[in-house]
Write a structure and sequence with these properties.
Number of helices: 8
Bound molecules: zinc ion
CATH superfamily: Class I glutamine amidotransferase (GATase) domain
Radius of gyration: 17 Å
CATH topology: Rossmann fold
Strand content: 25-35%
CATH architecture: 3-Layer(aba) Sandwich
Helix content: 25-40%
Number of domains: 1
Shape: globular
C-alpha cells in the first residue's frame, strides 16, 4: 500500500507485455500460456497499485497446469457482465481499485450467485472503500483514510513495508495449508484491518504492527472466497511456502 499510480502506466505496461492477452480467441484455444488442455484458467485483475510485475507473473508461470490472463481495471469490471468471464475458472484480484459502476456491481453479485470462486490478494483489501458490500464479499476491510468518503466506525488502518513477518498456520489440516509449517517472510503488514466474524482464519501473525488474522476463507452467496494478505513484492513472490499456499488456495477454490 503506498500510492495510486495513474492507470495509463498500467495500460502501457500491458501493451509492452507479450505474456498478456485479452483476446477471447486465445482463451477459447486454451493457449494463454501455450500449455494445453485441462489447465486451470485464471483471470488476474490488477490496477490502481504498482507491483513487481516480472516477479509476480513469474510466480504464476511457475505453477503447473495454470494459465492466466491479466485484465487491468477498470476493464476487468466491464467483463463481469460479459460472456468471456465464463472462460475463467477463478478470478484473482490483485488490484486496489475504485470506483465501480452500479451495473458492474450487479454483474459481480450475479457471478457470486453463480458460484465463481475468487482469490483476493494483499492490497485487494483496500479496493472499493465506499462500496459496503465489497467488505462482506471479501470478508474484511482495510480502512484507508485518504479514500473513505465518510468517517468509519472503525479505526483507520495502516501499513509497514519491508518487515520480517512470522506467518502462523492456524489450520494445519485445511486443504489450503496442508503440508505447510509456520514460516517467515520479508513482506508488508497491515494494522487495524477488519476481519469479519464468520470467516475461517487460516493464517495469523504476532507481528506487532499487524492485525493477527492475515488469511481466511469463507463463502459469499455461492462462491468460495479466499483472502491472503501477504503478497507485497518480489521476496515473498519467490518464497516456496508462499507459492505453495497460493497454489493450494487455487486448488481448493477449484474443488466443487
Ligand atoms: Zn503492498
Amino acid at each position: 500500500m503506498k500510492k495510486l499510480t495513474p492507470l495509463i502506466f498500467y495500460v502501457l505496461l500491458i501493451v509492452a507485455s507479450c505474456k498478456v492477452s485479452k483476446s477471447s480467441a486465445d482463451i477459447t484455444n486454451k493457449s494463454i500460456n501455450g500449455r494445453g488442455e485441462g489447465n486451470i484458467r485464471i483471470l488476474i485483475v490488477t490496477g490502481g497499485h504498482g507491483f513487481d510485475r516480472p516477479a509476480f507473473f513469474e510466480m504464476f508461470n511457475s505453477m503447473k497446469n495454470i494459465e492466466w490472463v491479466e485484465s487491468v481495471q477498470p476493464e476487468a469490471q466491464k467483463m463481469f457482465g460479459e460472456e468471456t468471464i465464463n472462460d475463467y475458472d477463478i478470478l484473482v484480484f490483485y488490484d486496489m481499485y475504485e470506483p465501480i459502476q452500479e451495473e458492474e456491481k450487479i454483474a459481480f453479485l450475479k457471478l457470486l450467485e453463480k458460484g465463481k470462486p475468487i482469490l483476493f490478494l494483499h492490497h485487494a483489501l483496500v479496493s472499493h472503500q465506499n462500496w459496503p458490500e465489497y467488505r462482506k464479499i471479501l470478508g474484511g476491510k482495510y480502512y484507508e483514510e485518504r479514500l473513505l468518503q465518510e468517517k468509519p466506525n472503525h479505526p483507520y488502518s495502516n501499513y509497514l513495508h519491508d518487515t520480517d513477518v512470522d506467518i502462523k498456520i492456524l489450520q494445519k489440516d485445511h486443504p489450503i495449508t496442508k503440508g505447510l509449517s509456520d514460516f517467515k517472510v520479508n513482506d508488508e503488514v497491515y494494522g487495524n484491518t477488519e476481519v469479519l466474524p464468520g470467516v475461517v482464519p487460516i493464517l495469523g501473525t504476532t507481528h506487532p504492527n499487524s492485525t493477527y488474522t492475515i488469511g481466511w476463507e469463507h463463502k459469499y452467496a455461492n462462491s468460495k472466497i479466499v483472502f491472503l494478505q501477504p503478497g507485497h513484492g518480489a521476496s515473498i513472490f519467490a518464497d516456496d511456502n508462499y507459492r505453495r499456499l497460493l497454489y493450494q488456495a487455487i486448488e481448493y477454490l477449484m474443488k466443487k
